[in-house]
Amino acid sequence: MDTLEKAYVKHPGVSPMIQSDRGFQYTSHEYKRLQLKYGFTKSMSRVSRCLDNQPIERFWGTYKSESYYLTKADTYEALYCAVRRYMRYYNNYRYTECLDGLSPNEYRRAA
Predict the structure, then answer these.
(1) Which end of the chain, N or C, is less surrounded by CB atoms within 10 Å?
(2) Residues whose CB falls within 8 Å of the CB of residue 77, separated by 6 or more in sequence, listed in order
(3) 54-93: b or e for each residue (b if 16 or more CB lie within 10 Å)?
(4) What is the pTM of this model?
């Protein structure tokens, strides 16, 4: 929930749609409180329907095969750094066919 709070502090006035699975954090009272506070639209996948959330499911599969299973992180700090490093790579340098051969950030800037 801290990440959500930080995002709204950094980008006040936005009202995104947040797609999630049915994890406990997305059905919690705290999440509902944040939704009321910031007014974002929540979209939740149906029970046992991973295809409802296909883009993020695909991302996590890609992350696991390209980074997580290849990274030996013995501490929380090492894992945190590895995830941040991969996110920087993914958003800025990882080109994908579905984004016309651009990285996610390049695609967003071109829109």
Answers:
(1) C
(2) none
(3) eeeeeeeeeeeeebeeeeeeeeeeeeeebeeebeeebeee
(4) 0.62
Domain span at residue 31 reads 2-44
Number of domains in the chain: 2
Q: Map tokens 């991969």 to a residue.
A: 86
Residues 105 and 58 in one domain: yes
Cβ proximity of 19 and 53 under 8 Å: yes
Q: Are 106 and 65 part of one and the same domain?
A: yes
List, in sequence order, the alpha helices (H) in the chain.
2-10, 29-38, 54-66, 76-92, 104-110
Report whether pLDDT(7) > 90: no
